[in-house]
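Now for a typical sample entry:
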Amino acid sequence: MSTAAALFGERQSPRTLAIAALVSFLVLCAMLARKDLIDQVLGMTPFVCKFDNSNYVTLGTALAGTAALAVFLTSLGMLFSRTNPPRSVAYALGVGSFVGFFVIVEALIQRGCINRFIVPFPSDIIAAFPRVIVEEDVLSRFLLTAGEAFSASIMVTVVGVAGGVLLYRYQLLRLATETWVAAVAAAPLVLMYPLYLVIFGRSALTIVMMGFTAGLAPIILKTLEGLSATRRVLINVGRSFNLTPSQQFWKILFPAALPTIFVGLRLGLIFSLINIVGVEFLINFGGLGQLINELAERYDLAGTYASICFVILVSVCVFVLMERLERWLRPAD
């Protein structure tokens, strides 16, 4: 960034810079949404020369696109250089970038850069939402997948944290099993679904147990890591106050390890949700995974991608709950 731009950025508020970045980004998206405007912008580059010197409209469009790109990059750089931008600025940029991404994908599909038989138009995906909600009973499927994810989350949290504490308390058990737990964390456990089908049958219990198995190892390892990383001075202070082992755990070890434990919970829930939806897809049973399978077999691309959006919504709900739980357990932060 130039010195003049930096001096200019110091005189502008973060809100002004955000508005400039958003407007310039939307100008770029509008230019990309039309084939002829894309060609006119590309005419300024030495790689695709479609520029006509006698066409002043083309010249104006190309210059406007170049200016919009420069304003966007400069405003964004100035904005991110600020130490504490307002939250509303981040939300505005997030929404603008999200909308702009879909516009760019739409334009690339129109131009043939992306095969429309693999990735549907984003506008078709949006139009497919009402049809998927009404005709495919997506609400009940969404609740089923969310319930499976919630059940697996509760089980994996209780057993995983308890397993990590157990390995921390008993050194011999840790030396004997820690390597095996790490190996399980790296293994493609979804391939075990035929065994779970034999044990639990073709039911929701199979899906929940697959999610439980997949998310268990990261939580055990991160709980063990957090407890082991507790500073020795804190433990010595607890001993100086003659705390019992139970008091020392709940007042010193557990609060100190809580940030690392939540990292493990997030990793474990990611693995659980991936396996839950994947097994639903593979055995054609359950909620959103089964719906994705059915729509894919019908070659309903727009409906398939709309269903994937509902899977993302399940993930968002789970992580919002995790964030609120962490804030409740760590009110000082």
